Amino acid sequence: MKQIVCVICSCWLFVSAMAQPTSLCVTTDKTTSLVFPFSILHVDRGTKDILVQPVEQAENILLVKAGLKDFPETNLSVFTSDGSVYTFKVCYDAAPTLWTYYLPINKKATIATYANGILDNRRTVWGVRDNSWNIDAAVIGAYIKNDITYWQLRIINNSPVDYDIEVLRFYIRDKKKSKRTAVQENELKTLYLSGNHTQIKAFSRNTIVVALDKFTIPDKKFMGIQIMEKNGGRHLMMKLNNKDILKAIPLPDLN
Q: Does the global pTM surpass 0.70?
């Protein structure tokens, strides 16, 4: 699978969406261990005042200690195989209170890695499609990993006019509505979009992968995928039910 890099912030095992460093205090006569959820690809030190050493027998562990006492504050960046970047502020402390850091999975980076890796997968789903004025859309793959579903869409533009996407949304809606009741609709939040999801050039095709939280569809409802053209009328809508969701292919663990 293709690897992409997303920036993670950790603060004493707390992860947020923005890249902010974790405070890491080290000393000269004791070693601090950083344990990552995935193998380490690259390490970058701000200065040579800190010493780092990967563990040959455990590719996800990095040993860190101070090269000299009272060095000025510096930084350390660690790149892991799931596409995450862990960034630390490093300072000197003669008696650190913590010797081992267990870093959590960067969920956002992991989702992005899977979504980008699925883009080029062969088609595994048939029969879910729609077309309008030489624009053809289809669901061509469904995958699941760690309570996240990934939907691989293909949009083909067989017209001489570029197709600009204004709306791409997933929702669950009632199959039928009573004259006395309003239609119940629950929009599904997109966690990540991979691929060119803004424009399909004339006589070309795009593949898009959309990551959503795991879900199933209640009775008498369906999942809709709506694609609307900007300043145009070539709108598309595809319907799926539980049997389509249950065909999702489990994805392997990242190495």
A: no
